[in-house]
Amino acid sequence: MTESTGGTVDPDGPLAFEDPEYREAVVDLLGAIAYGEISAFERLAEDARLAPTLEDKVAIVTMATAEFAHVAPLRERLESLGADPFAAMAPFRSAIDLFHAHTAPSDWFEGLIKAYVGDGMANDFYREIAAYLDAETRDLVVATLEDGGHSRFVVDRVRAAIVADHRLGGRLALWGRRLMGEALTQAQRVAAERDALSALLAGGVDRPGLDLAAIGRMFARITERHAERMAELGLDS
Amino acid sequence: MTESTGGTVDPDGPLAFEDPEYREAVVDLLGAIAYGEISAFERLAEDARLAPTLEDKVAIVTMATAEFAHVAPLRERLESLGADPFAAMAPFRSAIDLFHAHTAPSDWFEGLIKAYVGDGMANDFYREIAAYLDAETRDLVVATLEDGGHSRFVVDRVRAAIVADHRLGGRLALWGRRLMGEALTQAQRVAAERDALSALLAGGVDRPGLDLAAIGRMFARITERHAERMAELGLDS
């Protein structure tokens, strides 16, 4: 409720929302995350049809419904900010749909890797961005990142399949690189189109931000964690 | 824990499970419900692609995930009865898959009606059968029947569409009859194949059951409630 020293707005207080650009950036971010979760749900539910057994199908659908469960609190938060949740999602539909159209899995294992690695990349990005948010929004964003350990089964399934078929490992490693490349392409597209969201990262008069070097380091961290996840699956990155 | 008068087994006590035929019937029932929920989820998630707006899509997916949320407690209960949940589901996959294959919606409204009316019929049947179960199984079955009011939106959407297009009402009324017919066909098939499950309804030496006239009255009640649901949607049955 009070301004911090130096005349900057307290990023943890409601005052943050008195900056219309900050509010716009948060509406953008929550809209992007919400549509990302809906879209992730849809693709996982579709990929579930490729499951070799009913048990595998139930496991992937459990991951899908866990993603979808995040949508309701994001909608509520958008509404409490006076935004129409579906209008807030609209600007991100094209980039997210394109990401999925360009990375449609051709089999069950590509679907599993996409679920694990794609979700991981998105979560890393949101975790990075969460540092620039007020406390309430940050808590909400961080809560959407918890997967409840459902994706453990992906690691088990992929590792077992690679042991059984070494050529599969090479193909899936390439697939992981393609997912990363496509995600960066679409993220850059969003950054170029959504000024408020980019400004959130770049900082503003009242808020600390990232210079170009810091943004570079952020992407280096995200790429590094992608490599760690690929290694966890037993794949080169 | 005690036998009731007349030498019959207390249907509310663990002793009910000392009758192997009763246990087999409960495993069948929970397996059928679990696969029904998984399958309902799959079809709703697929029908969601026909949604005219993102908001409608989110509404139908919310119904789908509510169905799927029932699967985990059903699995746990099957495991606590010493049954393999997926083996318990297996005998019902063909009938339930056939029901869906024969009632694939050709548009968004047929999908909505199917979600509402199909789910309603299944729930009525489970509610009828619940009367013949021990208390713990009954509570679990009844809990799977709660839809949390999500389907209210189906009634609103269908009524509004019929007002706008009267011919749609005639087509959807026919569709409702077809759903009911196909559900009865598959239910009879299951009853013919699964002796323990049929015996649960018919009763046994130790348990009260239904004679043919009572089974007829049960189906009359289910048909009547189907007609009520169709009327609620603004459709003739």
From TrEMBL, chains A, B:
Superkingdom of origin: Bacteria
Family matches, as SUPFAM superfamilies: Ferritin-like
InterPro entries given in the database record: Ferritin-like (IPR012347), Ferritin-like_SF (IPR009078), Ferritin_actino (IPR059125)
Signal peptide: none
Pfam families tied to this protein: MiaE_2
Ferritin-like domain mapped to chain residues: 21-204
Name of the protein described by the UniProt record: Ferritin-like domain-containing protein
Organism: Nocardioides ginsengisegetis
Native organism taxonomy: Bacteria, Bacillati, Actinomycetota, Actinomycetes, Propionibacteriales
